[in-house]
Recover the amino acids of this structure.
């Protein structure tokens, strides 16, 4: 049954959502991270023996923050050089930071040994690995260019490099309570921002201006940054799953699709809402209702398994659940992207919910998006995306995105 469209009098307001986090909240989250980091490092070290390595060299900016506290802004790794790279041995954490970052590194990673981050990693590689007595070093191979790999081998021929993938990504998929709190806080900021924006979504408003206003509302209401560049797509442009806002104008009878998220304490949110401006056609409401049913079916499958005695579903299985709803309806093609993705220090991380995802049960506790869609080229696109907290041990399946998901009709 098609959800009853919400009338303008029933629209959500900013007061419907949680207030922004306080300074005390941020202080508590920092303390929680400080307390958790030794355990995170020890979980990494526990893998050394089976892999036959005696040190781990990391490059991903999310990983250095997770393990040491040192932060690089989104995209800053492109200009940071080797700053933010780290080497962990059995008994030491070494953080590379050149003179631009030395003060910051000392403040944010007080338990690490800070060394100058060379412009050319190979130049100091032999000295670096020798300082921790490493002879076999695991390296985040997906991030290290092959040419650099070869130079490191030449710089220290007695040190064997071992490609490592997925260790810390798997650890980060399991969320600690303070991590989940920050994702929820980021969700509330995004919810409140869209509720504030609703009166400004009127005929004549452009995609570009609405996306810019949405970003401003998040940044001035508790977000330290946006999780990614906000998307606003009008009418047929909404059929572009990763389209970018431009100058298309809102018009009566069109949909407006928003895909956006906030960042709080390093942790992100991600939500999509497709709104109607003026009375929608029966076809457009039908598309919306089918997407809503697909999302509800996937979430219901998780809830049934947490409440019962069945094993948790895999990300691949949940993707199939949602697609079957759309395929069984038979009127429109199902989305070609994945059903969802994990989220935390990165907007896209494990677990994956897609046809290519693992067949293993979802991890727990974790948080991920559920975002089915239908895209009709040249006509309309509808996607609904919520973040879901899964904690099987506590019997919890909870929506962190609280903005209404029923079809909303804005006055034209």
């Amino acid at each position: 049954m098609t959800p009853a469209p919400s009338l303008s009098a029933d629209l959500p307001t900013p007061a419907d959502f949680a207030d922004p986090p306080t300074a005390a909240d941020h202080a508590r989250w920092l303390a929680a991270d400080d307390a958790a980091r030794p355990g995170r490092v020890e979980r990494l070290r526990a893998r050394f023996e089976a892999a036959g390595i005696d040190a781990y060299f990391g490059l991903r900016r999310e990983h250095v923050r997770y393990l040491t506290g040192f932060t690089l802004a989104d995209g800053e790794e492109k200009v940071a050089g080797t700053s933010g790279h780290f080497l962990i041995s059995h008994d030491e954490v070494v953080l590379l930071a050149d003179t631009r970052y030395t003060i910051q590194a000392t403040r944010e990673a007080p338990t690490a040994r800070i060394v100058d981050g060379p412009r050319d990693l190979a130049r100091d590689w032999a000295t670096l690995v020798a300082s921790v007595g490493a002879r076999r070093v695991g390296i985040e191979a997906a991030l290290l260019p092959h040419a650099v790999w070869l130079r490191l081998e030449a710089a220290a021929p007695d040190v064997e490099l071992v490609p490592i993938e997925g260790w810390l990504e798997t650890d980060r998929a399991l969320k600690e309570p303070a991590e989940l709190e920050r994702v929820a806080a980021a969700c509330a900021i995004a919810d409140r921002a869209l509720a504030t924006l609703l009166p400004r979504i009127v005929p004549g408003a452009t995609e570009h201006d609405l996306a810019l206003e949405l970003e401003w509302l998040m940044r001035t209401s508790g977000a330290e940054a946006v999780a990614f560049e906000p998307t606003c797509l009008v009418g047929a442009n909404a059929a572009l799953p990763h389209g970018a806002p431009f100058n298309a104008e809102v018009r009566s009878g069109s949909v407006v699709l928003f895909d956006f998220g906030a960042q709080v304490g390093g942790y992100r949110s991600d939500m999509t809402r497709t709104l109607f401006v003026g009375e929608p056609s029966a076809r457009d409401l039908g598309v919306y209702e089918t997407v809503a049913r697909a999302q509800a079916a996937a979430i219901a499958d998780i809830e049934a398994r947490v409440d019962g005695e069945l094993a948790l579903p895999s990300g691949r299985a949940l993707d199939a659940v949602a697609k079957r709803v759309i395929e069984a309806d038979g009127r429109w093609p199902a989305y070609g992207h994945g059903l969802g993705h994990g989220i935390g220090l990165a907007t896209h991380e494990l677990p994956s919910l897609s046809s290519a995802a693992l067949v293993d049960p979802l991890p727990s506790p974790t948080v991920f998006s559920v975002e089915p869609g239908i895209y009709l080229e040249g006509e309309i696109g509808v996607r609904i995306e919520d973040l879901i907290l899964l904690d099987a041990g506590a019997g919890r399946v909870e929506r962190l995105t609280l903005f209404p998901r029923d079809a909303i009709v804005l006055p034209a």
User: Anything to note?
Assistant: The chain has eleven helices and 20 strands. Residues 8-20+174-410 form a domain with the Creatine Amidinohydrolase fold (CATH 3.90.230.10). The two ends are 25 Å apart (CA to CA). The chain has a mean pLDDT of 96.
